[in-house]
Amino acid sequence: MNDSILKIDPNINESADFLRARWKNQKPTTALICGSGWANISSGLTIIDEISYVEIKCLSKTTVDGHLSKLLLVKTSENFAVIFLGRRHYYEGVGWGPIAKPLLLCHEIGCKNLILTNAAGGIAETLNVGDLMIIKDHINFMGDNPLIGENQLSAVPRFPDQTEIYCRKLQNLAEKIGIEKSIKLKTGIYLALSGPAFETPAEIQAYKTMGVSAVGMSTVPEAIVGNALGFKILGISCITNKAAGISENPLSHEEVNQTSSESLPKMQMLIETLLAQIH
Ligand code: HPA
Questions:
Q1: Distance 101 CA to ligand 1 centre (A)
Q2: How far is the CA of 175 from the centre of ligand 1 (A)?
């Protein structure tokens, strides 16, 4: 059993003090956590500060290829945002702490919006490789929940409501930007598994009958914790491959990273415009 992520952790306060002292009145209101292959998501943004995770006490280096371990502060038209280049995953085997701490930190420094991006395998027939999908809702199929355990945090209810984890208004904003910028956006249900093995074709067929659009190994724990902390959440999947048994080829992390890089320009445009228009 993992240690509870809801216990008061002095490292979070210390790290928040460190960022507040460094950034002074540049206060981020939005946090973005990036999935595989989007190390260059920030290339068109105004970067104010760049900090390696190892310099921030409550963060830790990612162990997955395609994920850097850097926190950026960027200036948007009216606000500031933080970008986590690199996320931790449950399959790394170090519990929920490393996944939840970025959210606890962002909550502590006053962020209100949370954008989660990921790479996903497409199940729905309407999804093609390279598509971007706005997550309407999710299914937690990880066999565990990051909120289990003693809760010392007053900001987190014991039984958080999850009727609208993904904010309708932020989905509408993303859709509006998609139309303005001619970025085709699909919508769907994301199902998360622990990984690290990809799914079997039989599993994918079972998820298809459940109404799942796409599968992946991230985002859901962050959305569960983010929702419990009161963030307004937007989730965007990049369909990097057709899921097992639907794809004609064996699945690989290289293909996931390759498709993410190819989709980078439209993801960049979407993210840049979102950060400029989100309030
Ligand atoms: N399955 C699980 N996770 C993934 C996939 C997939 O097909 N593609 C990218 N991440």
A1: 24
A2: 24
Ligand 1 center to residue 56 CA distance, Å? 29
Spell out the domain ranges in the chain.
10-277
For residues 243 and 123, the answer to whether their CB atoms sit within 8 Å is yes
Cα distance between residue 259 and residue 160, in whole Å: 35
pTM for the model stands at 0.96
The pLDDT of residue 40 is 82
Atom of ligand 1 nearest to the CA of 242: 7
DSSP character string of 158-223: SS---TTSB-HHHHHHHHHHHHHTT--EEEEEEEE---SSPPPHHHHHHHHHTT--EEESSSHHHH
Mean pLDDT of the chain: 94
pLDDT for res 41? 87
**Which overall architecture, per CATH, does domain 10-277 show?**
3-Layer(aba) Sandwich (3.40)
Give CA–CA dist 30/164, Å, rounded.
19
Calculate mean pLDDT across residues 100-128: 97
pLDDT for 46 beyond 60: yes
Q: At 204, phi and psi to the nearest 5?
A: -60, -40
Q: Catalytic residue numbers?
A: 36, 67, 89, 91-92, 119, 217-218, 241, 253
Distances in Å between the Cα of 138 and the Cα atoms of 4, 26, 255 are 23, 33, 24
pLDDT of residue 101: 96
Rounded to whole angstroms, the Cα distance separating 263 from 115 reads 17
First to last CA, the chain: 38
Q: Does residue 118 have its Cβ closer than 6 Å to ligand 1?
A: no
3 state SS of 104: helix
Give the residue-averaged pLDDT of 225-242: 97
Give yes or no for residue 37 having a pLDDT over 80. no
